[in-house]
Amino acid sequence: MKRRDFIAGLGIAAALPAMARGQQEIPTIGFLSTRSPDEAAAHTNAFRGGLEETGYVEGHSVKIEYRWAKGDYSQLPAFTADLLSRPLALIVTAGDPAALAAKAAAPSIPIVFLVGGDPVREGLVASMNRPGAATGVNFFTGELGGKRLELLCAMVPSAHVVGLLVNPRFGAEMAEQQRKALATAAKELGREAIVQEASTDAEIELGFAAFVKAGVAALVVQNDPFFDSRRSHILTLSTNTRLPGIFHIREFPAEGGLMSYGASLSDTYRQVGVYAGKILRGAKPDDLPVLRPTKFELVINTKTARTFGLTVPQSMQIAADELIE
Q: Which CATH number applies to 142-262+296-324?
């Protein structure tokens, strides 16, 4: 063997471990979502934006393995197990069922979650300030059902019978929490409340039919990833049955729903991305308090209001954070 070939061979051999180390140094995030990739695209981009704020760019300095339940929560345990078969730096979960599935299967791996329920009550964290091995953002929407009904009745004052659409598979506690909040608000407002459960496309249609039969004039839709993934279907039914609704995120009125009240989902996804980036840089979840939004936005689609024959009160026009024409 010639001397220069021998030296070149040594160089290649020395470079291979370094290349392998370089590849291994790129961390992998497991992303477990209860939603659908197309429907959640804008929010997933917001998550990537949060990662980029901390210096991590997907495909360059971080790899992300996505698993989408598409509203079928029964798939979450299998998806979690599949993700855990890979060398993950952490798991990001979108939706309460996803967070609970990851927590049950991987209590030692850092988890960054986005949940609507109380993470302490759900057993995800020890406390909001010292959460333990999991942290994230508490979207804080489950407790706003009463406020949403109040806003809906101001918009539709003739609605003496109101409906609540809930998904029992989202979590019995969350569904019951929303039932109680709506029942209390309905009583205070002098309204009758009708509740319908739905966890499949067919049950959503049956629920709307039952609302119409019961004389419901307006409805509140539970904040639920399954309903988010069926947004177009729900909005079509709302239009066809002449049932104006209030929802938890602006994406519903942006696509033709009447109104929404809640925190910005895009911003919460961005915050989840920031927390994920901080953990990749060495921060411990226990040192990152669970975040809660401090500002809630009222969004009204005035064109949809006119379609339903409704006039947006002046007071609500002033209070609205966004009026969609």
A: 3.40.50.2300
